[in-house]
Design brief:
This protein is mostly beta strands. The strands form 24 sheets. Strands 2, 5, 6, 9, 10 and 11 form a 6-stranded mixed beta sheet that branches. Strands 13, 16, 17, 20, 21 and 22 form a 6-stranded mixed beta sheet that branches. Helix 4 packs across helix 10. 32% of the residues are buried.
Length: 1419
Amino acid sequence: MAAGRARRLLGSLWIALLLGQPDPAGAAARSGSQSLLTGPLVRTFTPFYFLVEPTDILSVRGASVVLNCSAHCETAPRVEWKKDGTFLNLVSDDRRQLLPDGSLFISSVVHSKHNKPDEGHYQCVATVDSLGTIVSRTAKLTVAGLPRFTSQPESSSVYRGSSAILSCEVNADLAPFVRWEQERRPLLLDERRLKLPGGALLLSNASDADAGLYRCLIESGGAPKYSEEAELTVLPDPEVPQSLVFTKQPSSLTKVTGQTAVFPCVAVGFPTPSIRWTRNEEELITEGHERLLLLAGGSLAISEVAEEDAGTYTCIAENGNETITAQAELAVQVPPEFLRRPANLYAHESMDIVFECEVTGKPTPTVRWLKNGDVVIPSDYFKIVKEHNLQVLGLVKSDEGFYQCIAENDVGNAQAGAQLIILDVDVAIPTLPPTSLTSATNDHLAPATTGPLPSAPRDVVATLVSTRFIRLTWRTPVSDPQGDNLTYSIFYTKEGINRERVENTSRPGETQVVIQNLMPETVYTFRVVAQNRHGPGESSAPLKVATQPEVQLPGPAPNIRAHASSPTSVTVTWETPLSGNGEIQNYKLYYMEKGQDTEQDVDVGGLSYTINGLKKYTEYSFRVVAYNKHGPGVSTQDVVVRTLSDVPSAAPQNLTLEVRNSKSIMLHWQPPPAGTHSGQITGYKIRYRKVSRKSDVTESIGGTQLFQLIEGLERGTEYSFRVAALTVNGTGPATDWVSAETFESDLDETRVPEVPSSLHVRPLVTSIVVSWTPPENQNIVVRGYAIGYGIGSPHAQTIKVDYKQRYYTIENLDPSSHYVITLKAFNNVGEGIPLYESAVTRPHSDASEVDLFVINAPYTPVPDPSPMMPPVGVQASILSHDTIRITWADNSLPKNQKITDARYYTVRWKTNIPANTKYKTANATTLSYLVTGLKPNTLYEFSVMVTKGRRSSTWSMTAHGTTFELGPTSPPKDVTVVSKEGKPRTIIVNWQPPSEANGKITGYIIYYSTDVNAEIHDWVIEPVVGNRLTHQIQELTLDTPYYFKIQARNSKGMGPMSEAVQFRTPKAESSDKMPNDQASGAAGKGNRAADIGADYKPPLGGSNSPHGSPTSPLDSNMLLVIIVSVGVITIVIVVIVAVFCTRRTTSHQKKKRAACKSVNGSHKYKGNSKDVKPPDLWIHHERLELKPIDKSPDPNPIMTDTPIPRNSQDITPVDNSMDSNIHQRQNSYRGHESEDSMSTLAGRRGMRPKMMMPFDSQPPQQSVRNTPSTDTMPAASSQTCADHQDPESAAGSYLANAQEEDTAQSLPTAHVRPSHPLKSFAVPAVPPAGSTYDPALPSTPLLTQQAPNHPVHSVKTASIGTLGRTRPPMPVVVPSAPDVQETTRMLEDSESSYEPDELTKEMAHLEGLMKDLNAITTA
């Protein structure tokens, strides 16, 4: 074996010679000896270096080990070995022997629990006598421990196609010796079966062949050690999805460059998951990669790890149903590497040299130096400079030899060496000097020529002697009195030391030098040698000089400590300095606030001091300097401490109130001024009270947000608020009380305010007084007024004032100037229409006005002549659908953009949709601001201004940003369903886009079903593209109720569904559609009033079709037959019910209480008792319910009515709430129409709200409203009894106050004129030819059907509006009692009047009918 190793070594040497293998220590020397030598007297550098160095080895007990080592030199080196720093004695060692090439052979490694003689660190030492010694890198021999399992495999099961982990954890040293067996046969590893670095077995894509018994074993020398057996069962695929879970997650690793890193990642679930990886959130592409490999089960292997591989690795498992992730960190360490190796050097004695050595590695390597194998200990003459370089001062002959730079860190070590040759004085150093020679020896590098040498310099004296430097002067030599071309070398040595150093003069002819870096109170010997172009001359006589003793100043005071003793004081303690010549006289304590430049100090006599008057919760730095009789000593290091926190010393700033509605007020504020927080603000305390009851205070403590919504307040009440900041220490001072009054009622804030009703201006010399009155419409919220003004244009300046304010003085104007002023009311929706006015300020000559102005305004602030520069570089960075970050720069700040004064920035933003949107603002004290609460998919513009004291800048240039999209947050609106003309099985669904689309609508989904309560996944789905607002659905079942919902979607997802809309298909395949074949709200849900479009107009000419086509004569005849039949049946049923009620009513008192009864409901209405005859009757006639309206002291009682049936199909009426969509009804009243609104809103044509005809003598106090009902039974079967009252007094119930209606711009009102209370028992006549039947009129007309035996002129009925012309849909409003004059006028205009005789006749006729019916029922 030894002979073979020798042959391999010779072969490697031969190959190295052929290939020109680099020679770290000798290659440069050989080339230098041939080109740089000036003569045969210069010795050459000797190549001496290691060919092979030992490497780290992992072995097992009883195994043999070879630690390789081979050194090269012209003279065969002697090789020795060190173990843990001690030379090994290999002569008498039986187990360890030295091989011929220098390697160390250990025949049998010994290792036990208490005896580990072979484990340790080894070094190879090569020595050549008379040349020097070099030492190899250190190699570590590790012996694996005794075989022992930390965890063993356990029986488990795995689904077919999934992955399984069988555990077998051992020590890291033993992991390479782990093997696996299946059914006690060796298991061959492949791409499916992987042994993890810890020893565990990973089986991926399990099949039936993988089932069986498994065990692991450790083969570390001797008999193998087996684990317990575990059975793996393979199960068939599960039929139901299994949630994803990790069975093995990656763990963080630390690897050395060149090693392999394996991140195991195994996830199971059904469907089987796929695995992918990211590094630092960037996708890793493993396919085709040289070093990245995806192993079995999804584990990641990184071969030949490099430093750039470090980072965070994320394993992502996904199977289509869910996704799970796991992370691990990879840290990469790098062994030491040389960036610059030491170079061989020539030098003369007394010179200074530097060996350079630059290394890198991770962790950062440490460097130590060896000289001929011995550690160089730093001293006065051997110094480590620039971290790793070795400086040798004042060379002597014994400094010759080999110097090695040893670099070490936690993961390795390396060595590099160089040779130093010291030449004789008469031998010149090669002409091209190494760069590592110091400036003190440069003059020695020029080769000498023959010629006369200078004599010794004369009169060498020390003209200045200090503690650490000496100045020497001399005269030129006798041989060269001028001495202009002479340079001088000053040799000096410390007394008792044979190492001499040299210093050269800086320029020729100079006869003085300063020798520095001397030791105090030390004797030095100096001599001076002159040198000309022929070489150095004679030396001067030695001069002995003693440096001055150094004044012993105090050292730094040890153990300085500082601790905060209160919010405004800090106590500092220290100890007496350890060094110092003389008694300490006093101390000076320096302290400075962090971030400031001025340091303060205080004299202290003792060893502690408490500084008071500091700022609260502020960092300070402290240091101490001791003084003795010689002066100040060395300062201590700074210690930093923060004073304790306290309650804030100032109140929050800029408290503003915003009245949201009648029960809530929003508060906004800014934190207390910087420097007054006195700690970390933990929250804010809000106190509020009614102004009328100042003692009753309510507290509310919120978080650190700078706003709070106070809810639950009383209507029309003025409240006062104050805010205080909180720290952990308590509550700081509060702001002044700020008041605001809640609204008397919740006004409308869905639109901007109207124009103010008036604007007046009064110009003065330098000001204009502006006064105004609020908008006439008081039903819209006004949150304030914006006043704009400027010379020739009102857009130069804008001032906003509170909504309560009615005047304002615009100051600081120019005299004799024409100003344009604009006034706009605004609310949260935006600014209203402006009102313009102009004025010319008075000239200066008008003294009276000036005096008056001065009296009224005693102080007028003068604008600063130098406004600040506006911020620049405003940028908007979109973060989410409702958040944008605004950043900017301030040119008035230093380059580092550090804010050190009390300036603040105001950020404003708005969106241009709608165009009159007002600006919102916020203050910031940094160069960025996070704007939140924005609308999705909306373009905003931003600008910034800066304010410092009374100086402000103009607004900066604007930046724009569009927020990201968000899924729709409201459903499609105005959903209507109509049947298609001529196709009863086909319907048309119309809708409008969502109000809050939050992005471009990309599509709609229509759901429809016959069961409104069915699960949504059971409904039929019809997708529609995003640019369509109508859709046809065909092949529906006749006479079947369908329910429809619509859902919108955009790029971010689906929005909410609309409410269900009901539609009943016709009963038979007929082309004529009844007016009630329309959509109506689902029972219990009710459609919004928005279902009535703004532009809806009923069809003309009695059309029942959606498109207004005229009705055929056949359809008219059939309609007449149906109407007559229904009318007759209705009269009979009414009479029967009346008889029934008469029989049940046995007392006159019951008649006066008028209990209302219904077949399907039990709503009761209590009337005022009045003994009036004939008896009261409910009259159900053609969908009209005539009911008494209660007299109630409540000005707005709520009325609940039974439903009104349809003509031929009973469809539930929708909720036609009068409180919503006022604009739509007003537009409809103006008569605007479009084809779209026709199709969209046709569904409302079949709805007929209830009309209650009161016979009370008292005027009601409320409007008749359509209310949602759940009663779907035919109303013809519901009967009611009510008290009857004086018919003349009933007229007041239907007279509207026209003045009040016009002023308030309320809903359009149908004025109901009084008619005879019993005339409606007559069969009503059909309207004359050409008249229009309006099915969408909210109040049901009474003249709707033809009676066969009664002429038209014989019928007197209560009329609503004017029959015979088309009217848009409008609610019937019964207003409060009008003025007397208007009542009289309306009574005169009444279409019908009734005499007592007519009333008596009608009642007698009715009583006769009742008697006949009573007799029939009795029989």
